[in-house]
Amino acid sequence: MLIVKRFAMILLLAGGVSAVAAQEATWIWYPGDFDIWLSNKMQNRRTERGSFFPPFWKLDNHYILINFHKTFNLTAPEDVSVYVEGEYNVKLDTKLLPGKPSQVTLPAGKHVLDMKVFCQDRVPAIYLKGKTLVTDTSWKVTFEDKEWIDATGKVSDQSGTVWLPAASGGFNNPLQPPSAFRLQVTPASAVRKEKLSQGEVLDFGKETFGFIKIHGLKGTGGLSLYYGESREEAMATESCETLDRLELQNAPARDSVLPLSKAFRYVQVNAAAGVSYDSVSMLYEYSTVQEKGNFRCSDEEINRIYDVAKYTLHLNTREFFIDGIKRDRWVWSGDAYQSYLMNYYLYFDEPTVKRTLLAQRGKDPVSSHINTIMDYTFYWFMGIYDYYRYTGDSSFIKQCYPRMQSLMEYCLGRRNKDGLMEGLSGDWIFIDWADGLSKQGEVSFEQLLFCRSLETMALCAEIANDAKHKDTYNQLAADVKTKLFNWYWNTEKQALVHSRINGQPTDHVTRYANMFAIFFNYLNNDQKQGVKKQVLLNNNVPAITTPYMRFYELEALCALGEQNYVLQEMKNYWGGMLKLGATSFWEEYNPAKKGAEHYAMYGRPFGKSLCHAWGASPIYLLGKYYLGVTPVTAGYDTYTITPVLGGLQWMEGDVPVPGGNIHVYCSAKEIKVQSATGTGKLLLNSKTKPVVSNGTAVLKSGQQYEVTIEKNKAYRITYTAL
Amino acid sequence: MLIVKRFAMILLLAGGVSAVAAQEATWIWYPGDFDIWLSNKMQNRRTERGSFFPPFWKLDNHYILINFHKTFNLTAPEDVSVYVEGEYNVKLDTKLLPGKPSQVTLPAGKHVLDMKVFCQDRVPAIYLKGKTLVTDTSWKVTFEDKEWIDATGKVSDQSGTVWLPAASGGFNNPLQPPSAFRLQVTPASAVRKEKLSQGEVLDFGKETFGFIKIHGLKGTGGLSLYYGESREEAMATESCETLDRLELQNAPARDSVLPLSKAFRYVQVNAAAGVSYDSVSMLYEYSTVQEKGNFRCSDEEINRIYDVAKYTLHLNTREFFIDGIKRDRWVWSGDAYQSYLMNYYLYFDEPTVKRTLLAQRGKDPVSSHINTIMDYTFYWFMGIYDYYRYTGDSSFIKQCYPRMQSLMEYCLGRRNKDGLMEGLSGDWIFIDWADGLSKQGEVSFEQLLFCRSLETMALCAEIANDAKHKDTYNQLAADVKTKLFNWYWNTEKQALVHSRINGQPTDHVTRYANMFAIFFNYLNNDQKQGVKKQVLLNNNVPAITTPYMRFYELEALCALGEQNYVLQEMKNYWGGMLKLGATSFWEEYNPAKKGAEHYAMYGRPFGKSLCHAWGASPIYLLGKYYLGVTPVTAGYDTYTITPVLGGLQWMEGDVPVPGGNIHVYCSAKEIKVQSATGTGKLLLNSKTKPVVSNGTAVLKSGQQYEVTIEKNKAYRITYTAL
Asked: What are the Alpha-rhamnosidase-like N-terminal domain coordinates in residue numbering (chains A, B) (predicted)?
């Protein structure tokens, strides 16, 4: 059924196609529109017990009428094949060509080609392929060309058209337009079958995702599928989160693929008396992102944690970086923000980051925070900041900048009389899932993220050559930061307090703002040590129970040099899930709970997601704070490598960077490094001056040495661990 | 072919339908969305010689995900049938019902029903029908419900959801959802056939609109149709504006209806040797708006002008009020504005006015003037003003007010340093089609319309209970008006000059601003007389050659009491077109031209539209300035009737008003009046005191008398004309 549908998609395209190599030509569209359209499809695939369950925020739309524009200069006339998604016309030098040509002959010399495409249900897109003229991102696009004519037929010569470079996304086959995009699938089988008094339960051996396929299905009557991330869930026909029901009427035997993908490890299959089938398998559906990073070390439990984290992230890396595969499958900004960071240490896949950022942002006007959550708006800005830091892709920043500005305008318009961000009607202050966490008044955590977002605006204003607003944003950021420390820093508690209510700081301390303040580098050294002792390592401050915020808590501790402590925490926390049989990491984990209690959330016995992207943070922590690779200037033009074993005997891994990897091996005696890009500084502590195979170690302070790492050279450093 | 398509539309609907009377239930959707969606379909139907020809402004989109919400209170449980356009769910008291129910049983008592509908290609819409619970405009809708849940499953209790009343549009049949909307068609035949050496020319006897139907079409090869508003155009295969080409391949004989409607009087049919057919007819396509107004008088030429004007307006009254049926078929704001005014004197059809206003306005953000034309933005505001004046429908004003505000914000943001509207890049200053008309600098005409638009904003701010902005808009309007008279009024010329350039008024006088200033009542009596003599009746001021601006020119003269002169102008100008064989009125008419010269425009031999809505203005002039019926307060709560024969011996007619008509008969001796609404003042001049059958005449001044007209009473007044 699914397969047939995909095939049909391809056949639906306009005919008359010849074999085309199409190496350079690619489908193009208006920037951001495919991302929004695809996210609408994706986010409306959620079901809850068979019922449609769409998002609760505004879904934006692609522009339905687009002008594609290209000035070309040919040395000889050229035949060009034309493929289009939508109703269209072709203009050569502003003159309409007859009808809807599937092939046009372009004259030699300098000319202008324009195509207008209208498409309501898909994104207007074109693919042109001639000997030299092809569609690519050198084409310009607009959603309003404003090209009126006067009574004599003369085209306006003072149009205010805003042209943008066209977007593309690797759709290089004229027969596979953007609307036909599907993730890959591959067949997979259950590893175990368990007969029930009625029906059977299939166990696919681990958390997985895809389309159930029922082979040789026939007969008359109902067939039900109950999906479970746990066996308990698959058995709970009245409370499992997802299910499918088919109704057959004299169906002849055939293989049926369920139309909607699901997350599961177990599936209970329950057929009515009149219905039979041969067997049940699945089509595993996955993104083809490439694993570029890796990590291995002397601790096998950490290695298993790393592998399950990788699998968890891969399952949640789909058309977009989503939150979890069982339930929402939505593009949540706070969740995706963590996936971006993990991505930089595993796939370094820029397209999925850009697609997710564009989908979250949508279009103007802004009528709510991203996903309705104030913090999630700020994570969106921070995602842009990090994207630039890791990739150095300034063209994407320039493309996003107008939408960044209007979103920031929305935020600035919602400040209270003290210039702080306080929840207004319709604003969800999320922070974390934590019992009794106060969202009242002006929460320090939100001001901190607001400040970082303003700093991001200033950075991007500079990239977008908007010097005037750069200054404005810098001043606004400085103002918020001043207020943060004047109003929230409690010297006695050595912490930022949780909130102000009615203009007065509370004396309640939580971890959130304090841990972010550390890796944002907003604290001086005394403050850092105070926070470490009085907040992070203080059991009287409420503990964090989600991997989501454990991500930042452990990052803060790593930033303070507590890798040994963090390694043990990883083993306890992620290792704890593994000991309970987890094959992917969870939305929430509280070691105090027992048995099926672990599966409950949102007031539902199986409400919790057992495969949540934010559970995969060891990928990031191990890459950034153990292998110790981090960019200093955008796109790894310069970077540092600060290996920290944290109690391991040895570790080895790759961190992907633009154009290749940075490879690091580290034991207590020896470090090996090779990098494919930029200029790095290897920072290490040694009792004696390290010996460098291919360079020299320079003493920086006390026992810290620095080795300059040049591109594509192998370094071997022997040293004496402290 | 067309018929088949329509039928298929209906069959595509969700099945399981029982016979339903459905008197009260109606399809509902988010306000404005159907109008925008339908206008996208309509405006993308334009072709030029067979090529797709879409608009050059931004096309907006409907919201693709909508929540429909209803609190109900049933005395007994009730079965409700559910019909939906799109993917959907149903929630009862915030709990999801299983799957996609086509029927739900609602419990007795007070409960809440929610439905979420996602639909990309059509407008999300629902139709529910129970014994008492039905979909209607008492339902609420939103495009973002912001109803998040916390970790315990509790729904947010501080949502900032903006709920609006749902919109509906007379779709009361569950099997005919909004997306299936089509205008009516009826078969029609040519009145004459002319054999050509190759092919034939059919003459349908007058301008018409619809789908050509070819009966018994069969064979192999091409068949071409060349459409002509004139015989010359249908014969000009190389330059006619619209055509169709079919290609047949061993087609068995069948009746084929062309998929796109066209405007024509003549059609040349040209079949290849291998193609044959039995005959050619058409399906005339039309709006079912009802004629409520009428006019008859002692001058048969005026009667013919009135009838052809009616036919012209009817052809251009379609899904929307469009500009002309042959070429653009777009929703142009300046053109539609005149149709609104004519509509109030012929159909009084509110839905087509509202649909057109909503379609033109589209959605935020505003990125250009309406249709890219500055004056057309202002006509949009004026259209709102008049809609309220004629209908008194304040709920529509309230619905539109936020979109009015953002459009006015756009205008205010584009004022120059002197606070005036000057064309910026991308702004088309249209005014009129007139050779050599200057659009440079700050054109007085635009300031005048800007001022009226600000007055409209103040009026609507009051209706929308926005007292603060009412004052702001009034101040802004007063400021523009002051500048208009301080800077543009030339005492010597007794006129507003055409423009200022570089801050200096020119001494060039055109008719535009001056004639609008008269019926906007911006001039004092001396200024009015000055303008009349020095501008309107001055042959040295460039003449107007479009019925578009003749509309306002003649209105201004009527407002000055020049009905005798205007009657002669009507006979000359519109009568002139009739003498040339016009069966509908034209986009432009210059009596100085000869033969086929009349058909040329935009540099093309048949570029001119011979059926243009703005050609139908006699409907308005005769109703408003001869029968003399005009509302004083909104919705004809109070009104005046000032009959002016203007040289006619007698006239009689009806002007539609809310709830009925106002009937007026007038000769030099006798006036008869009956009104279905409000309280009127009949104003008449008489040498002697008029005798009133059913009331009394009160002397107001000199020889002017006033008779109060009460609802549903017949009055007969005898008087002595001056």
From this structure: 66-269
Distance, in Å, from the CA atom of A137 to the CA atom of A140, rounded to the nearest integer, reads: 8
| pLDDT at residue B605 greater than cutoff 90 | yes
- Shortest distance, CA B382 to any CA of chain A (angstroms): 23
pLDDT at A20: 38
CA angle A551, A556, A559 (to 5 degrees): 125
ipTM of the complex: 0.93
Are A174 and A204 in a shared domain?
no
Q: What is the CATH number of the domain that holds A88?
A: 2.60.120.260
Give the β-pairing of B184-188 and B279-286. Answer: antiparallel
Residue A9 has pLDDT above 50, yes or no: no
Q: Measured between CA atoms, how close is B697 to chain A, in angstroms?
A: 52
Percent over 90 (pLDDT), chain B: 93
- Is the minimum CB–CB distance between B708 and chain A shorter than 8 Å? no
Please identify which residue in the block is written with the tokens 């007063």.
B478
Question: How confident is the prediction for chain A on average, in pLDDT?
Answer: 94
Instruction: Spell out which residues of chain B touch residue A48, defining contact as CB-CB under 8 Å.
Output: 96
- Of B315 and A17, the structure prediction assigns the larger pLDDT to B315
**Which pLDDT does position B157 carry in this prediction?**
66
CB within 8 Å of A157: residues ≥ 6 apart: none
User: Is the pLDDT assigned to residue A4 strictly greater than 90?
Assistant: no
C-alpha span between A407 and A364 (Å, rounded): 8
User: Which residues in chain A touch residue B40, judged by CB atoms under 8 angstroms apart?
Assistant: 64-65, 118, 120
The number of beta carbons lying within 10 Å of the beta carbon of residue B191 is 11
Burial class (CB in 10 A: 0-12, 13-18, 19+), A704: middle
Residue B75's contacts (CB-CB under 8 Å, 6 or more residues apart) are B108
**CA–CA dist B346, B351 (Å, integer):** 14
Same domain (yes/no): A556, A453: yes
Q: Domain total for chain B?
A: 4
Tell me whether residues B144 and A44 touch, CB distance under 8 A.
no
Mean pLDDT of all residues in chain B? Answer: 94
* Boundary (domain end) residue, out of B144, B161, B180: B180
Q: What is the pLDDT of residues A401-447, one digit of tens each?
A: 999 999 999 999 999 999 999 999 999 999 999 989 999 999 999 99
Q: Are residues A599 and A637 located together in one domain of the fold?
A: no
Domain holding A206, by residue range, is: 184-286
B161 and A CB contact within 8 Å: yes
Give the Cα separation of A158 and A178 in Å (integer).
Answer: 34
Q: What is the pLDDT of residue B7?
A: 34
If DSSP states are collapsed to H, E and C, what string results for A118-179? ECCCCCCEEEEECCCCECCCCCEEECCCCCCECCCCCECCCCCCCCEECEECCCCCCCCCHH
Q: What CA–CA distance (Å, rounded) separates B118 from B604? A: 45
Contact A627, A680 (CB under 8 A): no
Q: Is A249 on the interface with B (CB under 8 A)?
A: no
